[in-house]
Amino acid sequence: MVGAGVALVVIVVVITFGSGGDDGGGTSAPATVPSVSSSAAAHDLATHVTLAPADWGSAYVRDSPYEGDRMAQTLPDQNCKIVAESLTDALANQWRNVKDPDNTAFASSTLTVYKGADFAKRDIARQRDAVRQCPSESEANDKRQWDNVHEVKIPALKGFDDVVAEEGHLGTNEKGQKTDTYYVSLTGSRGQYVLNSTISRGPDTQEQNRTDAADALSLMLSRLASR
Length: 227
What we know:
The protein is an alpha+beta fold. The protein is 23% helix and 37% strand. Strands 1, 2, 3, 4, 5, 6, 7, 8, 9, 10 and 11 form an eleven-stranded mixed sheet that branches. Strand 5 and strand 6 form a beta hairpin. It is globular.
């Protein structure tokens, strides 16, 4: 279980968040992660690693849509519009969405299995560049708009080759209505794998968002290393 309520967590990760940061990777590595070369093996691994509702906490339930394996990812383009791009260098891509029953917390986890570590490194480098280049972003297919998008440093999140930590604020929802939602998105690479955990809540929740996102990413890495 990653988080239940405010305080109950199984995996404890001590994290110091600050501004900026070029290197999010830790210095100590976990057990060796498996190597896969087929789409079938990659998909099986991805379904094992991505998180179910209970992994986030006992109160969480499936969101709708709950899961998918489309071979695409979303990134801001040169105009900071969020668009989908095909994952031509990946073997599998699995995501799952969860929420709490009150619709006050929304979380997701994703594992992308690339054909090799170089593709994973390229992916996370592009994500870091996007965070630094687009402090404001908008969705190409609806009316969502984000502001105060920025990178933060997480020096104590260990076991990854590299980590990109992104925070921001959703000011307008998909219908064009004003909202006040804050999110944390952590992306870590390890060998041929790129893992992501994202969670969003209302005002004054970023500290809890950081904790839950970090615990989720660590849980995913531990599952990956145990296969």
